Amino acid sequence: MKIVELLDRTKHDAGVESDYALAKVLGIHKARVSAYYSGKEAPNEWACLKISEITGIPLDTVIATVKAESEKDDERRAVWENYMKRLGGLAASFLITLCVTVTMLVTSPPSQAAQGKDLGPVTFCIM
Predict the structure, then answer these.
(1) How far apart are CA 125 and CA 95, in angstroms?
(2) Can you give the pTM of this predicted structure?
(3) Which among 51, 55, 112, 115 is least buried, having the fewest CB atoms inside 10 angstroms?
(4) How many other CB atoms sit within 10 Å of the CB of residue 65?
(5) The domain 3-70 is classified under which CATH number: 3.30.300.30, 3.40.50.2300, 3.40.30.10, 1.10.260.40?
(6) Per-residue pLDDT reduced to its tens digit, 24-67
């Protein structure tokens, strides 16, 4: 994900369309939003926190996204990018664990399934 994508998602999730409206939602000046979109500036911690609150994207993911894109030093950028990859792996592991747990909770034991008992709605997890 890129900073521009974070900003666009924030607009969408906040139900706003203009940069001015986004600036109001983030509690910053419109010129700063323009600077974020142009790449002249990167969102600061406050903007990252607001983006996280509005989009539901974890704060560490927002910060890592911003740092990975805005970091000038190649070595430091690589560290942020590796951190983001690890975050992605942790999120995937969490989702798999969650899906297995939910499946175990809603799936009947074989003895009940053989009897054709109706257990109500079943949840499917697609990844």
Answers:
(1) 9
(2) 0.66
(3) 115
(4) 24
(5) 1.10.260.40
(6) 999 999 999 999 999 999 999 999 999 999 999 999 899 989 98
